[in-house]
Design goal:
With 154 residues, the protein is mostly helical. The chain has three helices and two strands, in the order ββααα.
Length: 154
């Protein structure tokens, strides 16, 4: 069974059917429309939803504070100071530090956008929060505790 893989998965409310084929003959399953994915069971209890909501707000506050550090005034730079390096190595170090800070700020900005999108999803339909956006499967509470803005179950 090591050489075979799951090629087609059809998600139904009552059962899941799986077809096994040889990898050479496997094709990608067609994406099912979101409207056919339904769940009659809420993925999270009200206490778990409240905990995930608090975690989203905590993560948002943390990232907002981190992004404030990357501002021009955060390092004590006021446009009046002269930043001409005394040595070429200083210029290289400054450039590397600025590059790293820009990369971190970019990553944090993307994460903040994901958190804001998760908060919008949470506020628009709190009982459906915690469902995988593509499959409709429940995202585990443990995963949401670690990454509260998760969109996928895995």
């Amino acid at each position: 069974m090591g050489r075979f893989r799951c090629a087609v998965i059809a998600l139904h409310v009552s059962h899941v059917s799986v077809t096994m084929t040889h990898p050479r003959h496997a094709t990608r399953p067609a994406a099912s429309p979101r409207s056919t994915i339904t769940s009659s069971v809420a993925p999270l209890t009200s206490e778990q939803r409240a905990h995930v909501h608090r975690r989203l707000l905590e993560e948002r506050a943390t990232i907002t504070r981190r992004l404030a550090r990357y501002g021009p005034d955060a390092a004590g730079e006021s446009g009046a100071t002269n930043r001409v390096p005394f040595h070429m190595a200083d210029l290289g170090s400054d450039t590397m530090q600025e590059t790293l800070e820009a990369a971190f700020a970019s990553r944090d900005s993307r994460t903040l956008a994901e958190i804001d999108a998760a908060l919008r999803r949470f506020y628009s339909n709190p009982t459906a929060f915690g469902l995988d956006e593509q499959t409709g499967a429940c995202i585990s509470f443990e995963r949401l505790d670690i990454i509260p803005w998760a969109r996928r179950a895995s």
